[in-house]
Structures are given as C-alpha cells and as structure tokens.
Amino acid sequence: MTTWFNETLYKGFRQSHEVKKVLFEGKSKYQQVGVFESGRFGRVLALDGVVQCTEGDEFVYHEMLTHLPILAHGAVQSVLIIGGGDGGILEEVLKHKAIKRVTMVEIDGDVIEVAKKYLPKICGKAFSDKRTNLIVGDGAAYVAETKDRYDIVIVDRPDPVGPATVLFSEGFYKNCRRVMKPNGILVAQNGVPHMQGPELTEAVKLFQKLWAQSGTYLAVVPTYVCGFMSMTWASDRDITDVDPRKVFARFDKARLPALNYYNPEIHFGAFALPNFVARLLPAPKKPVPKKVVKTAAKKKAALKKKKAKR
Ligand code: SAM
C-alpha cells in the first residue's frame, strides 16, 4: 500500500508526496523533524509537517536567495545566514571564493545533524568549510548581541510559526539593520503570495520603516506550492538599479560551478512582478525632497549658531 505525506500548511488545500522510505523521524526541542525518500522529488526535509526543501527543487530557492543579492552587491566579504538548517543556503554562498566569512545561526542543532547525515546532496561539505562559523542558537538573540557586521544578511526562515515567529518581527529587522555594513543587503524567504499575501505586505511595510529601499523578487519553487515564491529585500540602495553589464561581469568573474536556476538574465527578470503581487506591496516610500533635507539642515545649523552666540 502506498503511503503519502500530506503537507498541512494551507486550509482547504494540500500537497501530497508518495513516501518511498522514511529516513528519519523525531521530535527536537523545537519541532517535529522528518526526512523521507519521496516519489518524485528525492529526499524531502519536513518540519512540523511542512516541506522545507527537497533534493528535486532546492536549487531554485537556494540559488536565488544567495547569488542574486551577492552579485547585486558586488563586493561581498561577509555573510550572515539566519536559519537555513538544511545547509543549502550555506553551500551556495560558499561557492563565492571571494567571500571570507559566513556565519550561520540555526536554532535547532538536530536539523543540522539530520541534514549532514541524510541531505548531503543539499549541504555538501558546507558545514565543515573553514570559512563557516556555525552557531546553534536563536537568530533574533544573535543579531541583538553580536558585534560582528555583515555585507549580506540572508533570512532562510520557515513560516511564521513556533521559534520562527520572532524572525518576522520589527525588533528582529531593526537588529538585522544594526549588524549590516553600509550598503548592506538583507533578503528573506517571504512565502507564496497567492496563499500568504499578508506576510509579504507586512514584511515590506516594516522594511520601509528601516531602510531607504525594499521590495520583492520572485521564483517558482515546485514544492512551495501555489505559484511564485517571494523573496523580499531591503537596503539603503536600490538593488534593482544595478547596471546589468556589472552583474554579467561579476557573474563571469565569480566563476561559479554550474548552476541550475540562477543566471544574470533571470536576475533582472525576477524583479518583474505580476499585478496581483505588485498590489500586495505598500506604496513605495516617498523620497524626502532634497530641498526639505537642506532646509532642515540649515535650520539646525542656524539654531546651533544662535546657541553658540548666547
Ligand atoms: N527554505 C525553508 C522554507 O522556505 O520554508 C526554510 C528552511 S530552513 C530549514 C528553516 C530553519 O529555520 C529551520 O531549520 C528552523 O529550525 C530555523 N529557525 C526557526 N526559528 C529560528 C530562530 N529563531 N533562529 C534561528 N533559526 C530558526
């Protein structure tokens, strides 16, 4: 008799995978952890009954949440990964030889051990790379305390449940900003707009409070069902406004091993949003007209001068 894994994420809709073989099943301090050999997508990691990644399509999500911000930035030396226990994001980041240091903060050590043992096709040797600084702990606490600073922050979080709820909060984003170097870029997993639209709206609303620029780009990950997956970004510079010739040149120079999804064309294509997704984004922040900025500065200087005269 065929056994099926039924994902229980959405009301009234579910995806099911044939279970060929259960490789691991257990309860960690934080969540139910499961790995099984599936009928069509190879090995699947599920947390609390929700698909986190599969061997069959992890490349889409892991390549787009890493190579796009790294090549948009152009001079990345240090990267912080929050979450990402399966090691797929870490593995992609380490493909960039110019990157000197990658810190990964994952709350659940069991997920890392399970990934090392059962998901080598996803994490490769990334956990033992000498550039990897692996911390088992709460990502929100880490960004609140660390003195380290990063060019790129990648939030590879699950859905806003359990220990991950705090990773969708304004306080967490404020501290992410705190640990970013000037011109740094933050990117985050932000759900499937067709089913999780309010999550996307809420995230960009909070980003607009903290950064000059923010938005989303899209990719289709077959087992993140119901269409596009949104990856949100935030920075004090507009990452959509990078000269394409620069991205092509950086891509060539990076000499990345063969990728299955990312290329410089899809880099720019990913920012093209269908109307229903564009409508989910809050109106862009009105840039403060230079004149207003100037007047304010002038006023301040005048006040200072007045005080000095007294
Ligand atoms: N790509 C997946 C998705 O889109 O659903 C997420 C992958 S990854 C497995 C998510 C990881 O975030 C999990 O291993 C989970 O344990 C971790 N996580 C949850 N809350 C966390 C927190 N507060 N700090 C650090 N890691 C956390």
Name a few traits of the molecule.
27% strand; 12 strands; five-stranded antiparallel beta sheet; globular; 12 helices; seven-stranded mixed beta sheet; alpha/beta; binds S-adenosylmethionine; 310 residues
Outline of this structure?
The chain has 310 residues and is an alpha/beta fold.
Task: Compute the number of helices.
Answer: 12
| Coarse shape | globular
User: What's the number of extended β-strand segments?
Assistant: 12
Strand content: 25-35%
Specify the oligomeric state. Answer: single chain
Largest sheet: 7 strands, mixed
Low-confidence stretches: none
Helix content: 25-40%
Order of helices and strands: EEEEEHHEHEHHEHEHEHEEHHHH
Question: What would you note in describing this structure?
Answer:
The N and C termini lie far apart (90 Å). This protein has twelve helices and twelve strands. It has 310 residues and is of the alpha/beta class. It has helices at 58-64, 67-73, 88-93, 109-118, 120-123, 139-145, 170-178, 193-210, 244-254, 264-269, 275-278, 290-309, and strands spanning 3-6, 16-27, 32-38, 43-47, 50-54, 78-83, 101-106, 132-136, 150-156, 180-189, 213-220, 228-235. The protein has a seven-stranded mixed sheet with strand order 8-7-6-9-10-12-11, with helices on both faces. Bound molecules: S-adenosylmethionine. S-adenosylmethionine (SAM) binds at residues 47, 52-53, 61, 82-86, 105-108, 111, 138-140, 156-158, 163-164, 166-167, 189. S-adenosylmethionine is lined by residues 47, 52-53, 61, 82-86, 105-108, 111, 138-140, 156-158, 163-164, 166-167, 189.
